[in-house]
Amino acid sequence: MDFKTLIKQSWIYKGIYQPYRFKREKAIAGHKHAIFVQYGAETLTHFAQCMQKSGIEYWLEFGTLLGAYRDNAFVPNELDLDIGAHLCDVPRIHQVLTENGFRLVREFHVIGKNCLEQTYEYRGVTLDMMYFTQEGDMTWCYGAFYDSWKCKVGKPFFHQVTAHYFRPFGISKIQFLGMEMCVPKNTEEHLTEIFGKGYKVYDPDFKGDLNKIFYSWEEMKGIGFHYY
Predict the structure, then answer these.
(1) Contact 123, 134 (CB under 8 A)
(2) Secondary structure E strands in 48-102
(3) Whole-model pTM?
(4) pLDDT digits (tens, 9 = 90+) for 107-134
């Protein structure tokens, strides 16, 4: 039995560390949700207006797209916003957002791959920018699940890197939050690729999207992850 496994089986880890961490993470999520309830709609409409004025193409993505299309509202217990955009537009998007009050707080990339994920913050609400690129006959974006606790002490922080794949799609618009917002044109097919055919019914036990390939952080070389 290695040292890491031994620690995880100890009474200190199970009886003190795990309960404390669970309680702390629950409190953090509750705080983020409270901020989102107050400023989430304002943040998204401000973002959409900035993109429209600049002529940069974007679209609602993942959980944000699901709520807007299915419920005409954010999904319950939402913590942040998910946005898709083209990888080639990163410099313009960064310029427009920073000029309009958004702050870049973290960035993930893998050297040698056409992948980038950025997180911006506005009024305490985080907005995840997922950048898409064409590879073969599919459209891809990448992201990462990370452990912020380990990150703070300088240890390997990636639970896993994810690659999401989609059939190519165009852009159309829907009404959301009192204005037109961009979504994938094949919205129902797109949501089915992510959440499965049952996406039209809210499932509080749904654990994650379907169309992704997982990589452990050890498998990916040249990972860059930066806090700003």
Answers:
(1) no
(2) 58-60, 80-86
(3) 0.85
(4) 887 766 777 899 999 999 999 999 999 8
